[in-house]
Task: structure prediction
Amino acid sequence: MGPILVLYYSRHGSTKRLADAIAQGAMAELSSLEANAASSSTGESFVRPEVIVRSVASLNPSSNGASSKEPGLNSQGSGEESTNVSVEESNPNAAPTVTLQELERCSALALGSPTRFGNMAAPVKYFLDSTSSQWLKGSLINKPACVFTSSSSMHGGQESTLLSMMIPLFHHGMVMCGLPYSEPALHETRSGGSPYGVSHVALDNAVTLTEDEKSLCIAQGKRLANLANALWHANNPETTHGA
Ligand SMILES: Cc1cc2nc3c(=O)[nH]c(=O)nc-3n(C[C@H](O)[C@H](O)[C@H](O)COP(=O)(O)O)c2cc1C
Result:
């Protein structure tokens, strides 16, 4: 069973916090699956998969003089599409950059992006647009996935961003999982969190997650890991749990 991949882009750190909390939930679920297998009377063994946290690469520096604040503008600032993409600084504390092999090998994917005009950020879309060979090979078919986002305002397009990130994952044949309303924090949250996926509202650029946001991330990570194990086992009936 390949690693559970938590993949994100984050410029200021909020989306990274969500990613780290989802990874924490996934690891907790794997520990509990491992403990259950160890205490099982059937003597079933469980080979625990890794949880890896990765970021997508920033866009390449423009050599045509376009401002880093103006993605997509050409040197005349006309707004016409430039052949060189412009600089998008990433968080210096970002996780290592993902490779296509890591994506291909994963047994589950959590994909996160800041909300940008109600949509995913360009570096995330740019990365997804580089995955046609994984689509051709069907590498992600029947693997579970979830999506997450951070925005600066409560009604600034979190749900549309989450839905937009799901679309390419459906094309890849992934099995989308959100959060059920049996999660108490989904009823109680006064900030981020939705059945479409976990989120953070970074009012005044506050990157720290609320208790409800964090507990929903943990629940999302657990659900993703649990589904990864179940789906992988269903598709590989002859093999040891998690092997
Ligand atoms: C180009 C751009 C577009 C943005 N669009 C939105 C938006 O539509 N709605 C919103 O609430 N916040 C918007 N924001 C704010 C970010 O979503 C917010 O700061 C987010 O928490 C950043 O995540 P990060 O800390 O992971 O970088 C935008 C920011 C930028 C730079």
